[in-house]
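re: that chain from earlier
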Amino acid sequence: MIYRNFLLKCSRSARTFARRKKSLSPHFTRYAGRQTLPPRELQHIYITSCYIIEHSNTRFAIDAPTRRRGAVLSAWNPGSYRHSEYTNRKRDRRLLRLLRGQRWRGMWGGKDTWWERHYWVPELPLELAARISMTMDQKAFLFLDGRHVRLIWCYT
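^ sequence. v structure.
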């Protein structure tokens, strides 16, 4: 899968968390036959991730200061469940159809061995970003308000 080919480093705490992955497995819960992390651990994974715009040195981190505005959206692995690369690429095409008429830049987000395709859409309003993320069954998205990078949770 394409997101296994990326081994980019974000922070020491992210690497430590990945080493402890097996010790966290008893805390996994099951939903509809799939494993998912409880909200606190899932939030930790989101917060320690970094987001890198392709062909640029621009990186985003949650709660970091920024002058940029817009949203970082993804269609990969809806509901934080791992899907095949084929399914993720199909969902990417659907997201790009929803973004028709908007400017966007491709980027990667994640940490350790889990990297997902994202798109930074400059000047996208919060309401539209939330609607698109919920349509794509995402748990959260990033919103850049011109001051900070915010993690916005979707409740679908």
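The chain has one domain: 13-21+36-153.
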